[in-house]
């Protein structure tokens, strides 16, 4: 097979104890990290290469590589935790390549019942850009969403019209927001208010409370639970300005592709309506370069027909 590399898979499983019951999925959440290498990216286009002009803080990647974390999690400072969040941001993203994947989403709502859809997503994290196109159900096929140049658009192929949307908006009336599909950048959008340590199931975690630096993000306050050993996000509680719990996100499975560690199974539980929840699953992840024209309105219009 041309250009193929050996693919190795490593599973690490552990159960999160407690009474977290997600009826939709019919199982107790299992926090796991699965390591899997991916084929090298190929093709032609604008992916890969050094970053430039993308609005990231100075030395965003370089500072992470050189940062030394305390050996004892009890010694973490607010700055240590912010750098830990930065580590999770970088490892969950693709700054040196493009990314494409299939997204399957299953949601349950006391009003709408259970519904499912499938999307194809194309991301260019170095530019904070992505394109997402609905594949299923057939009745919604071709609907799309595009983020480019800090603007976000939804496209309806029936009316052939673009509608401006934001990162805060919910996706398909589910517990998922548009922001959940972009690269992670919590270390940019939030500042650390306080930190503590604890356990989540069988894992030692560092828990940080953070406050938003801007009003573009969906939640003004968040509380992050990061596993100390693997330095991966297991859980994020998301709050309103009055500190009312609006949503809880669980990242239950990770896949390693090159230097990136991607949360491929994500569960979003509504904080106000317990019966409302969604599971988002990423499959068929590729790091092949994508043409520049993928991230344009013209391409979205053409491919949606």
Task: Spell out the key features of this protein.
two-stranded antiparallel sheet, 305 residues, outer membrane lipoprotein receptor (LolB), chain A, 15-stranded mixed sheet, disordered N terminus, globular, mainly beta
SSE layout:
Layout: E1 9-15, E2 21-22, E3 27-28, E4 30-36, H1 60-66, H2 78-91, E5 99-109, E6 113-124, E7 129-136, E8 144-148, E9 151-156, E10 161-165, H3 186-189, E11 190-200, E12 203-212, E13 221-227, E14 233-239, E15 245-257, E16 260-270, E17 277-286, H4 297-303
Parallel strand pairs: 4-15
Antiparallel strand pairs: 1-4, 2-3, 5-6, 5-17, 6-7, 7-8, 8-9, 9-10, 11-12, 12-13, 13-14, 14-15, 15-16, 16-17
Counting H and I runs of at least 4 residues, what is the number of helices? 4
Shape: globular
Mean pLDDT: 85
Major pleated sheet:
15 strands, mixed
Number of strands: 17
**Whole-number radius of gyration?**
19 Å
Assigned CATH class: Mainly Beta
Helix content, binned percent: 10-25%
Compressed to H and E, one letter per element, the order equals: EEEEHHEEEEEEHEEEEEEEH
- What count of structural domains? 1
Fourth-level CATH superfamily:
Lipoprotein localisation LolA/LolB/LppX
CATH topology: outer membrane lipoprotein receptor (LolB), chain A
Structural class of the helices, strands and pairings?
mainly beta
Strand content: 35-45%
Gap between N and C termini, in Å?
33 Å
Low-confidence stretches: 1-45, 47-54
């Amino acid at each position: 097979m041309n250009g193929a590399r050996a693919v190795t898979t490593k599973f690490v499983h552990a159960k999160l104890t407690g009474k977290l019951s997600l009826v939709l999925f019919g199982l107790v959440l299992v926090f796991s990290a699965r390591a899997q290498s991916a084929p090298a990216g190929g093709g032609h286009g604008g992916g890969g290469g050094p970053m430039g002009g993308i609005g990231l803080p100075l030395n965003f990647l370089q500072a992470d590589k050189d940062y030394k974390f305390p050996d004892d999690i009890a010694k973490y400072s607010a700055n240590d935790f912010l750098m830990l969040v930065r580590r999770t941001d970088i490892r969950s993203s693709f700054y040196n390549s493009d990314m494409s994947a299939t997204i399957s989403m299953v949601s349950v709502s006391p009003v709408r019942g259970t519904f499912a859809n499938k999307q194809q997503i194309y991301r260019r994290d170095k530019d904070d850009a992505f394109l997402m196109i609905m594949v299923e159900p057939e009745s919604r096929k071709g609907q799309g969403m595009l983020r480019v140049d800090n603007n976000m658009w939804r496209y309806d192929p029936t009316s052939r019209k673009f509608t401006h949307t934001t990162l805060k908006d919910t996706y398909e009336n589910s517990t998922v927001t548009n922001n959940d599909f972009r690269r992670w950048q919590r270390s940019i959008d939030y500042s650390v208010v306080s930190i503590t340590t604890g356990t989540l199931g069988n894992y030692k975690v560092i828990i940080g409370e953070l406050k938003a630096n801007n009003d573009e993000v969906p939640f003004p306050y968040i509380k992050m639970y990061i596993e100390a050993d693997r330095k991966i996000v297991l859980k994020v509680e998301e709050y309103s300005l009055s500190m009312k719990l609006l949503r809880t996100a669980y990242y239950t499975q990770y896949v390693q592709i090159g230097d990136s560690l991607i949360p491929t199974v994500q569960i979003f539980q509504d904080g106000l309506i317990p019966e409302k929840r969604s599971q988002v699953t990423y499959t068929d992840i590729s790091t092949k370069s994508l043409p520049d024209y993928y991230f344009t309105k013209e391409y979205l219009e053409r491919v949606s027909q």
